[in-house]
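Target chain:
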Amino acid sequence: MDFKQNQKINQVTEKTLVVGIDIAKRKHFACFVDDRGRVLQKSFSVLQSSDGFDRFYQRILTAMKENEKTEVIVGIEPTVHYWLNLAYFLEERGIPLAMINPMHVKRTKEEDSSQLKAWQGIIDILIKKQRSSAADSIKKTMFILVSIE
């Protein structure tokens, strides 16, 4: 396994706030969890606007402080072009964005017998990737996290 793949696996640690977002046209839904998948903040809406993004950013900072997290990673399933405004906003603030292949989110949701929301599937993929060993991660998940740089 190459160095870049190891970096991607190590993005989620015990000091990382993991944010999964279900992207939509006017209103996204986000949830905060820790590195073990425990919900730190239940699902909440994020408006597709400058004001909505600012409020979202403040919620991230508050959650990081309350839960003693020093890092954050945001995972999304890119939907049409609706994710771009959020991606630019996060990039301006230095927050890494992991784009999850929609087919992997779909597969994760199918493997789970309950009705997962898209953000739950995204978080599940990010957490599974961190927990599994390098060899297992290739066999089990077969997805690529692509960070916007």
In short: Helices lie at 3-9, 50-66, 84-92, 102-111, 118-131, 134-140. The chain has one domain: 3-140.
